[in-house]
UniProtKB/TrEMBL annotation:
This is Formate--tetrahydrofolate ligase. The lineage of its organism: Bacteria, Bacillati, Bacillota, Clostridia, Thermoanaerobacterales. Keywords: ATP-binding, Ligase, Nucleotide-binding, One-carbon metabolism. It catalyses: (6S)-5,6,7,8-tetrahydrofolate + formate + ATP = (6R)-10-formyltetrahydrofolate + ADP + phosphate. Coiled coil: none annotated. It comes from Thermacetogenium phaeum (strain ATCC BAA-254 / DSM 26808 / PB). ATP binds at residues 73-80. The keyword Nucleotide-binding applies. GO terms for molecular function: ATP binding; formate-tetrahydrofolate ligase activity. Belongs to the formate--tetrahydrofolate ligase family. The keyword Lipid biosynthesis does not apply.
Length: 586
């Protein structure tokens, strides 16, 4: 059944749907699992990846469908909602379908973005568990990450206080860590701008080594990146030992293996390799694995979940973070390269609202009323805004995929506006479907499901944007020009110095290029909408993720620690003390 999302809030729809949510025993029967392949965890069991892949290794892969979007408004344009709707629509068509999405961070859940569970009748359940920690993967990543920092700072304190002979008595050798060249910081899973730049070790010599430090949001941790791209537990363990924590005074990298903390980090993360099993409100299975934020991280549901889903389902739907210029680009050139998996279809989500913004509409501000231009017909704004849509259709087509544009329908959209978008998308070589999944669930997503199934019948000539042998600066130039539409790249002195060093060092030749930039524009400047012209991409620094094997060029002034707004969501979240149920999540 479909609930009335104009009358009920998301958490209320979730509460109703969860009354008939499949039990673990029902999932075992429905998904054809062995009993020991489902790991009990309340209403959100985990799937034993190692056991399942061993049993299913010879089964052919299903169709691989990726969901991305046009450049969004600050409100988001419904990628997760569309992913849920597509699962429901394919389910209505009688298909064996499942999906994989990313676990939400506590930062945006308690800030302005909300839970990322979808919405209306295209919603993931159980919503409260999904929104508030799920089975603890992010918590395990935080503990493992911060344990590395504990190891680093304790080692620096001991090296400062003891001679080489005294260190040897403690079975330690001097690493000679440079306190001014520490790569890692601490992490917390909230938007805590007050922790971006801190001083630690204040006090006496027993209180640690005094130095500048920093916090990032937990899902920006290299450990989350490693979970996203690891192929199995062995790969995860190896990568954890290669994380660069700092450098010594001669410039040599200091790794977690050097600190002898990598094994303990893996112990904290041993259970994170198993995806969590959840479902839509229409009970299509959907795995939750890895984290969000394609602007500051890889922003992909995991390779592990996709490998498993392709064995389990005839159609497997996976979601990439933010818009196609960053989410799809990383899916295309990083995730698919590392996994060896070839996608069949990319669904490009668009809304009339976002197209109007790109066409010159007023600024959209979370928490404030939407300007009337977004609720009244305005064909000129829509047509102008379609430049962003057409640009990103072209980006996807460069990979060899013919995209399916999904118009995520709002009740304020007019027939004329929708016809205009469909005509322009189809003229650009894409299929286009209107979907009303938010309002009607699977019944509203049948046109989208049909378009995706039709697209899956086509052969895909999948190819990467650049070869792995291409030098770092040339890769960045290629991404900037071919994906973002920039005229070129300007390198800050620090970034250029690092780039030259990485290009000349054979250790970095096969590192992936993981761009860090705003999700609110094709450019580095979030206020530049549509398809900006006549600009160059500034790269101010390059982060090194030694375990993930990423080099991360940073464009603009983006921070790895977002800030909490003046009207955050936590002000409206509460608990019914008589029932224990959480209210107010959105």
């Amino acid at each position: 059944m479909a609930w009335d999302p104009t009358r009920l809030k998301d958490w209320q729809i979730a509460e109703e749907a969860e009354k008939n949510m499949p039990t673990p025993e029902e999932w075992i029967d429905r998904l054809g699992l062995e009993k020991d392949e489902l790991i009990p965890y309340g209403r959100t069991p985990k799937l034993d990846f190692i056991k399942m892949m061993k049993r299913l290794e010879n089964r052919p892969d299903g169709k691989y469908i990726e969901v991305t979007a046009i450049t969004p408004t600050p409100l988001g344009e419904g990628k997760t909602t569309t992913t849920m709707g597509l699962l429901e629509g394919l389910g209505k068509r009688g298909q064996n379908v499942g999906g994989a999405i990313r676990q939400p961070s506590g930062g945006p859940t308690m800030n302005i973005k909300g839970t990322a569970a979808g919405g209306g009748n295209a919603l993931l359940i159980p919503m409260t568990e999904f929104s508030l920690g799920l089975t603890g993967d992010i918590n395990d990543i935080m503990n493992a990450h911060n344990l590395a920092m504990v190891a680093l700072t304790a080692r620096m304190q001991h090296e400062a206080n003891y001679s080489d002979e005294e260190l040897a008595k403690r079975n330690l050798k001097r690493l000679d860590i440079d306190p001014k060249n520490v790569e890692m910081g601490w992490v917390i899973d909230f938007c805590a701008q007050a922790l971006r730049n801190i001083i630690i070790g204040i006090g006496g010599k027993k209180d640690g080594f005094m130095m500048a430090s920093k916090f990032g949001i937990a899902v920006s941790s290299e450990l989350m990146a490693i979970l996203s791209i690891a192929n199995d537990l062995e790969d995860l363990r190896k990568r954890l030992g290669e994380i660069v924590v700092a450098y010594d005074k001669s410039g040599k990298p200091i790794t977690t293996a050097d600190l002898e903390v990598d094994g303990a980090m893996c112990a904290w993360m041993r259970n994170t390799i198993n995806p969590t099993l959840a479902c839509t409100v229409e009970y299509q299975p959907c795995m939750v694995h890895a984290g969000p934020f394609a602007n500051i991280a890889v922003g992909q549901s995991s390779i592990i979940a996709d490998r498993l889903g392709l064995k389990m389902f005839d159609y497997h739907v996976t979601e990439s973070g933010f818009a196609a210029d960053i989410g799809f680009e990383k899916f295309w050139n990083v995730k698919c390269r590392l996994s060896g998996l070839k996608p069949n279809v990319s669904v490009l989500v668009a809304t009339i609202r976002a197209l109007k913004m790109h066409g010159g509409g007023p600024t959209v501000v979370p928490g404030r009323p939407i300007p009337e231009e977004y609720t009244k017909e305005n064909l000129s704004l829509v047509e102008k805004g379609c430049e962003n849509l057409l640009h990103l259709i072209n980006v996807i087509r460069k990979s060899g995929i013919k995209p399916v544009v999904c118009i995520n329908s709002f009740y304020t959209d007019t027939d004329a506006e929708i016809k205009l978008v469909k005509r322009m998308a189809e003229q650009a070589g894409a299929r286009c479907a209107v979907s009303e999944h938010w309002l009607k669930g699977g019944e509203g997503a049948l046109e989208l499901a049909d378009a995706v199934m039709d697209a899956c019948k086509e052969e895909v000539d999948f190819k990467f944007l650049y070869p792995l042998e291409m030098p770092l600066r040339q890769r960045v130039e290629t991404i900037a020009k071919e994906v973002y539409g920039a005229d070129g790249v300007d390198w800050y002195p620090l970034a250029e110095e690092k780039a030259k060093r990485f290009e000349s060092d054979p250790r970095y030749k096969d590192f992936a290029t993981m761009m860090v930039k705003t999700h609110l524009s094709l450019s580095h400047e979030p206020t530049w909408k549509g398809v900006p012209k006549g600009w160059r991409l500034p790269i101010r620094d390059i982060l090194v993720y030694g375990g993930a094997r990423f080099l991360c060029p940073m464009a603009g002034s983006i921070s790895l620690m977002p800030g909490t707004s003046s009207d955050p969501a936590f002000r409206r979240v509460d608990v019914d003390v008589k029932t224990g149920k959480v209210m107010g999540l959105f």
